[in-house]
Amino acid sequence: MPIQDKPRGLKAQRDAAQEVATSALAFIAADGERLVRFLAETGLSPATLRDAAAKRGFGAGVLAFVISDEAMLVAFAAEKGLDPRHVVGALEILAPQADPDAVVRRPM
User: Fold this and answer.
1) I need a labelling partner for 86 at 20 to 30 A (CA). Which of 5, 22, 38, 69 fits?
2) Mean pLDDT of 9-26
3) Phi-psi region for residue 6, left (φ > 0), alpha (ψ -120 to 50) or beta?
């Protein structure tokens, strides 16, 4: 389900955001230079990538990596038919900013 379909409910939004993150990982893996840079920046290796991908928060890290490079963000969004703002929105869903005024705090 593409994120631009505006899924309803928190679970549906998280699922759509995770789908964007999974697509972003495939986008990274499809290009050797991007993959080498991703592995170097994350400290992962090809052998540890699969285990890391199964951990909570990995998708947010993938999206943060893509967003950190505007050219990569634009290329990924264009390839997947997404507005780059939707990619940023997916990251915000997977790793919302901490609200210092919130009554309930997210565990770190």
Assistant:
1) 38
2) 93
3) left
For the record, the structure tokens of 24 come out as 């972003």
* Vertex 11: Cα angle to 49 and 26 (nearest 5): 30
Amino acid identity for residue 80 in this structure: K
| Phi (first) and psi of residue 2, to 5 degrees | -65, 145
Percent of the chain surpassing pLDDT 70: 82
Residues 6 or more apart in contact with residue 49 via CB below 8 angstroms: 39
Q: What residue type is 2 in one-letter code?
A: P
| Cβ-proximal residues to 44 (8 Å cutoff; 6+ apart), any chain | 38, 52
Average pLDDT value for residue range 80-102: 86
Closest CA to 1 of 9, 17, 11: 17
What is the DSSP track for 63-98?
HHHHHTSHHHHHHHHHHHT--HHHHHHHHHHHSPPP
